[in-house]
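Before relying on records like the one below, remember that each one covers exactly one chain. Contacts with other chains, cofactors or solvent are not represented anywhere in the record.
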Amino acid sequence: MSQITNRPVRSTGRLRPKLPINVGLVSVIIPTYNRARLVGRAIQSVLAQTYRDIEVIIVDDGSVDDTRAVVQAFGPRVRYFYQENAGVTAARNLGMGNARGEFLAFLDSDDAWAPWKVESQLAALSCHAEAGLVWTDMSALDPHGRVLSDRYLRIMYRAHSRVKIEEKMRQVGVLGTLSSAVPNELASSAVRIGDLYSNILLGNLLHTSTVLVRRAWVEQVGGFDPSFVRAGEDYEFYVRLCSVGPVIFIDAPSTEYCVGADDQLTRPAMLLEIARNNIRAIKRWIPHSAAHLTIPPQSVRLSFAESYGWLGEAEFAEGNRMAAARDLVRSIIKKPRIDRRSALLILCVFPVGISRRLASMGAVLLSLIN
């Protein structure tokens, strides 16, 4: 397996398996918390994969509902681990530490997979031994199961507007050649390979429930950083993984991603922590990787501008006006402009009541203009 060895791969500590590794086995790690009503659907979608050499690892992050009973009813192909509530990062690391597979995959307990997902991803890695990670697009469903978007990856992750996958990753085939179970309407979807090490520093491009990775790569860079307790841990993890070598993207939705539920880590109440951890990741990695970046300096500045702007908006929404002003100023210094973030910065200097009225007036004006 070839790797790009001249890069400073920064590890968070080696992932040491507790059990012998089974060649060909895929370990699917599903963290869950009080989702007895949902986790069974996620498990069923894994057990229904056309690739059969799979173990399911459920990490129960302190549930007080019937999660244990639901999981154990599936029998020996599903392994159950319990921990006191410590967050999704600790749960995923616990799952990986107890995995027996040569490959690791991740699935959130309110999401589900198409039957062809794992088979296609393993086939892609088999064709390209130099690659160590493969991910896909996803569809978005509301809590009632209604499809909101057939292809949601480029909508959810704004970095796709700055990083054009079609330009950065060369096409090496189509999905239909990887699995006979792929529906006809997806068979011609592109399979791409490329080096995303620099470009992922412009923002996250991968969604965790769609990822499958070689365990050897995770052992090289370490697991999820435990200091990212509840949110944003995935982006920093993928920056490290993309520093190892080429990755593969299957441009088709393999995963049904639930949006809009009150207990999701991406719910509005969590956006501030996600924004804070996003800026932590790029502040850690861009200086660390400066000598190896292939993106121009203006793109680096844009990455910081967008991240500080996002954080400023989140701080403002939570009422943290001084912090919001600080981050919005940093954003505007990186990319001087007049836009909604400039307007938010102005609102920060007004008393709360006045700024709320001004913000409401601005929203009304924008609606009339549009």
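Confidence is low (pLDDT under 50) at residues 1-6, 357-370.
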